[in-house]
Design brief:
10 strands; 196 residues; binds dinuclear copper ion; 4 helices; elongated; alpha+beta; three-stranded mixed β-sheet; five-stranded mixed β-sheet
Length: 196
């Protein structure tokens, strides 16, 4: 028997076994492809974050969820749309199984709008499609999102956090109307949408 064939590393590989250097080369290629995918996904996050002014909810502001109805910012008479002295709009809403209160809000177009939401029970989600508004609504905290709407329109607003058996039916509307139309509305019609 020759010296070379007694060394197992020098023996020819049986059929169907891929040589080690081929395996290493293929694995290196896949590692590079995966690293490139991570770079692309990170770039998409950064570019959309900067260009679309998207950011994760970072408002740490606590509120007592069991006494929302008794007083303070989220008492019923204070819910809906309010116009601030600087002309911007603030919308206050409560998410509760399985609706948003008020069920429909109206805001003026071309105006800075601040949404302030909290939950009276479990975690809900608040999403306005095609805008930068997308936040969780967590009991005990106030979600605070700034946006504005260039054009009038209707936004259907689904709860996008599973919150119980009625989650699929939990949705509401934001109605964006022209600025002058909004100003012409009475105090109650400004606060919330009359029709359901
Ligand atoms: Cu509220 Cu899902």
């Amino acid at each position: 028997m020759a010296e070379s064939s007694s060394d197992p590393l020098q023996r020819p590989l049986p059929d169907g076994i891929v040589p080690e250097e081929v395996v290493a080369r293929t694995e290196n290629h896949w590692v590079m492809i995966m690293a490139a995918m991570l770079v692309v996904m990170m770039a998409v996050l950064v570019v959309t974050g900067v260009s679309g002014a998207l950011n994760p909810p970072s408002n740490v502001e606590v509120v007592e969820p069991v006494t929302l109805h008794l007083g303070g910012e989220f008492v019923e008479s204070n819910l809906g749309t309010a116009i601030e002295p600087d002309g911007s709009a603030t919308v206050r809403m409560i998410a509760v199984q399985y609706d948003f209160v008020p069920h429909c809000v109206v805001v003026p177009a071309g105006t800075p709008v601040k949404f302030r939401l909290t939950s009276a029970d479990v975690v809900h989600g608040f999403l306005l499609p095609d805008t930068n508004v997308n936040t969780m609504v967590v009991p005990g905290f106030v979600a605070d999102v700034d946006t504005s709407f260039a054009e009038p329109g209707e936004y259907v607003m689904p709860c996008h956090e599973f919150c119980g058996l009625g989650h699929h039916a939990m949705w509401t509307r934001v109605s964006v109307v022209p600025k002058d139309q909004f100003a012409a509305r009475g105090p109650l019609e400004r606060t919330r949408c009359a029709k359901q």
